[in-house]
Amino acid sequence: MTPCEPSKGGVVPPALRARPDGPGDALIPDLERTAAQVRLDVLGMIHRAGSGHPGGSLSAVEILVHLYFREMHLSPDQPFDDDRDRFILSKGHAAPALYSVLARRGYLDPSELDTLRRVGSRLQGHPDMRRLPFLDASTGSLGQGFATAVGMARGLAARGSRSTVFCLLGDGELQEGIVWEAAAGAAHARLSNIVAVVDCNGVQLDGTVDSIKRQKPVSTMWLAWGWHAVDTDGHSFESLGSAFMEARACRGPAVLCARTIKGKGVSFMEGSCSWHGRCPDEGELERARAEILGGGL
Amino acid sequence: MKTRATREGWIDGLMAAAGRDPRVVLMDADVSRSIGGERFADRFPTRHFNVGVSEQEMLAEAAGLALAGFVPFVQSYAVFCAGRAWEQIRTGICHMNLGVKIGGAHAGLSAGPDGATHQALEDVAIMRVLPNMKVLVPADANQTRAAALAAASIEGPVYVRFGRNPVPVIYPEDCSVVAGGADVLREGGDVLLIAAGAMVAACLEAATALEAGGVSATVINAYSIKPLAEDLVIEAAGRCGRVVVAMDHQEAGGLFGAVAELLARRCSVPVEPVCVADRFGESGSPGEIFAVLGLTAEGVAAAARRVLERHAR
Fold it and tell me: Fewer CB within 10 A of the terminal residue: chain B, N end or C end?
């Protein structure tokens, strides 16, 4: 992979290895260091942009790092290879985390991260594949990315592709009716080339998911739609690794119900709906950075 | 005069497009038998996906199929595919400029007895405002076949509106449709009648009636509502000096809106609508409902006389 540049905080990400033709073989300590770097990136990007969604970006960090460094068949050198695995960020508001992971994986120069949400930037507030062509879809309207992932899986299966479609949703997003429609559709079509991940951070914009529209346990919903559901710890690379292995092995569509913490890694953001879409000020950014760096990089 | 339902022409076009291009697939949302999709499914069983009563899923999945390299056609009643799934079309298809081809069936007043819930009178307005979207409203079964074929090769998203009931056949089987095209079906110098869909035949009939009263009309079938054949319309509007626009759609945002916007920018002449005036439809046979709302040859002729009086030369 392309060596990462030193970040502004002076943290040098590890030289992660990944086979260009297959899933990465990064070691867990390396993945954890990358996750910490992504958290620093996310907070810095949102701070500089003046707006964004830190809570749901931080909860998804390990899932995204695992996918891009260890799970998906992809190569930054050949971003349009037809055999690559696909990824759709249905919870498009976690775009800062995705952009950071793409940068640390070698798709973007990390310096471009500073342009988030600026006029003319390729890094739109929500992912835009017409500006950032190696994205597999544009997203941002909740529920749609998931249904588009199902359609993509349907199409890839129809033409005998080896590729798997991965899709990340939020748990609040499951309130969208289109998720129910497409989940039932994927199960009916017996699609074995799609793995969904639900970032179950338990918090949505207006409050906790339980207080707005209770829907636990999440895995029960997916089982009812006909999916193979795997419960996992969304912040543990070990747990994610075995959960994805199980998901890939099963026939039919599979979902990981990943227990996560909104705002994970920053104590004053964790579990709080007020940090769903709030921008940290200078002092908050420094406190957050100190906590992440103190966590051992 | 021979008549045929435009939905039959749509399926003819899909079959022909699928025969020419292996990337063409069809998605249905449980009204396949009603529109005629089972004919496609019988011929191309592995290229037909029926997702059930789930229009939002269908449109969002179609985006995924396009991203996976296919040319997906989707179809449902216009109220449900254009209306219910509008935001999937906007954000999931048009924003990415994906080549999803949307068939709005049973559109306008052709859904007659089903009543207001099933009569799409707003679909063109909400499709026309979307960047990248092209909107085709063919006038008869043969032109609908050509529109489906054209949609398959036009880049990006296309909305094709067609109806349920037989309408007069105006075009030959080998007619062609292009985005931004329009056909002058009759030449006259006193008034310009512009229509799309089922009202094209009514305008031709009205032009004949007007001629008996000494009024000569040009009739344009503006089947490509977006992009509109602007130069053709402006030339004819300038020459005739008065315009009537007829379509079974709300005045706001439909063909009347499109023509009025164009005339406001480039050619200040009076224009009269023969459209639906900010109301819902109701149950009845299509012929009865067209008459109740004044969308008839007589209604067009009366509007022509009004606009001639408004702007006597």
Answer: C
Nearest to B209 by CA among B143, B310, B312, B296: B296
Give me B165's structure tokens: 């009931």
Same-domain pairing of B159 and B26: yes
Predicted TM-score (pTM) of this structure = 0.93
Give the residue carrying structure tokens 């033709």.
A21
Which residue, among A131, A181, A191, A193, would best test binding to B if mutated, counting the most B CBs under 10 Å from its CB? A181
Give the best residue of A178, A190, A191, A193 to mutate against chain B (max B CB count within 10 A): A178
* Pick from A281, A253, A205: nearest CA to A53: A205
Q: Using one digit for the tens of pLDDT, what is the confidence trace for A191-232?
A: 999 999 999 999 999 999 999 998 879 999 999 999 999 999
Residues of B in contact with A138 (CB under 8 A): 91, 95-96
Last residue of a domain, one of B168, B203, B236: B168
Give the one of B63, B96, B97 whose C-beta lies nearest to A151's C-beta: B63
Domain boundary (B139, B168, B197) is at: B168
Total of domains in chain A: 1
Domain co-membership, B292 together with B192:
yes
- For B69-93, how does the pLDDT look when each residue is reduced to its tens digit (9 = 90+)? 999 999 999 999 999 999 999 999 9
